[in-house]
Amino acid sequence: PEYFHTSQLTEKSNVYSFRVVLAELLTGKRPIDMERAQEQHNLTTYFIMSMKENKLFQILEPRVVREGSLEQLQAMAELIKRCMFMNLEDRPTMKEVAMELEGLRKFSKNHHHQQAYGLHESK
């Protein structure tokens, strides 16, 4: 959005664009789809609207839901939301995005390892 207003690209412009890739990966949907209902044409708008209405899990790719934990999916959704912040200072850097994604990947590996070997915590 800042490019539209200032004609300047920044590192955080890439973060704003990357949110589309992340949303595509989670939903399996195209960024723009005129066959969806009008309020759903734009994937990122549809994604945020679904989050606000607590319907995010209804639009996620079923395989993603099966393979990811609730915590991972919620963290990914929040990361995508932060990548859309209009205020550059509030938007994460690409390095921060990469670090958070790496943390989610490690969480996934650890979580699956614990399940495979029965190492999950008992309450």
Short overview:
With 123 residues, the chain is mostly helical. The protein is built from seven helices and no strands. It has one domain: Transferase(Phosphotransferase), domain 1, CATH 1.10.510.
Count of discrete domains: 1
Average pLDDT confidence is 84
Radius of gyration, whole Å: 16 Å
Stretches where pLDDT is under 50 for at least 5 consecutive residues are 113-123
Say what the CATH topology is.
Transferase(Phosphotransferase), domain 1
SSE class: mainly alpha
CATH classification class? Mainly Alpha
Domain Protein kinase: 1-104
Pfam family, one: PK_Tyr_Ser-Thr
GO molecular function: ATP binding; protein serine/threonine kinase activity
Keywords: ATP-binding, Kinase, Nucleotide-binding, Receptor, Transferase
Topology, please?
Layout (H helix, E strand, L loop, with lengths): L1 H5 L4 H17 L15 H10 L3 H4 L2 H6 L2 H14 L10 H23 L7
